Amino acid sequence: MAVEDLSAPQGVKLTIEDYPFGSDGLVLWGAIKEWVSDYVSYFYPEASLIQSDQELQAWWTEIRTVGHGDKKEGWPLLKTPEDLIGILTIMIWVPSGHHAAVNFGQYAYAGYFPNRPTIARTKMPTEDPSDEEWKSFERRPEEALLKCFPSQLQATKRYWMCYRISPDEEYIGEGIEPSWEENPIIKAAFEIFSGRLKELEGIIDARNADKNLKNRTGAGVVPYQLLKPVSEPGVTAQGVPNSISI
Q1: I need a labelling partner for 140 at 20 to 30 A (CA). Which of 92, 130, 152, 242 fits?
Q2: pTM for this entry
């Protein structure tokens, strides 16, 4: 979906220009990386500080060997500020922007629960059925399907929990940590980050109004708003929380 292009803002160029998730996601990714870079560069200006920080190295070792002990290969090294910036950018992006894009957009499809039932209340008809059960299935397969579907309460509770923006949601870049506020350099970096997210909201609105972007606007096309940083409460298909919260 993208090729390396060092002249592009994030070092990659989309192979499909009208790709809403990719276009908006790269802007959000860039804002996150800029904020992480400012933060890391302040506390770890030299590689030796990364390598000698025993607590930081223990944290990374635990993630690799305990948290994801099943994954033996492919881990980046943690020796330089650039390494830490890359690691933290991914760790912030996945539960915030990436999760918001893949989760909050599901309701349009999954809200009709036969498309994606939350649970199966009975076993499949082919799983060791008795003679009577099999005969009943052959006579009225739709009855077996209805018995398998979740109840109305089970279906609505699951969808409401997963696809709804909570009234007390905490959005990315919205609230500053007290310790950051006490440090003028970190506070300024966070305010820049928050400003980038406000810019992203305007960028998304402008793209959704661009009639040349056929995947975002036009007859029968739903505007792409999944990576708008904030949202009103409810099922809105927009808003990027700080992290996954269920």
Answers
A1: 152
A2: 0.86
CA–CA gap between residue 84 and residue 37 (Å, rounded):
9
* Alpha-carbon distances of 28 from 75, 76, 99, rounded to whole Å: 24, 22, 13
Q: Is the CA virtual torsion 216, 218, 220, 223 positive or negative?
A: positive
* Per-residue confidence in pLDDT tens, the chain, 246 aa: 889 998 988 889 999 989 999 999 999 999 999 999 999 999 999 999 999 999 999 999 999 999 988 888 899 999 999 999 999 999 999 999 999 999 888 888 877 888 888 788 888 888 888 999 899 999 999 998 888 888 888 887 776 677 788 888 999 999 999 999 999 999 999 999 999 999 999 999 999 999 999 999 988 898 999 999 999 998 888 999 998 866
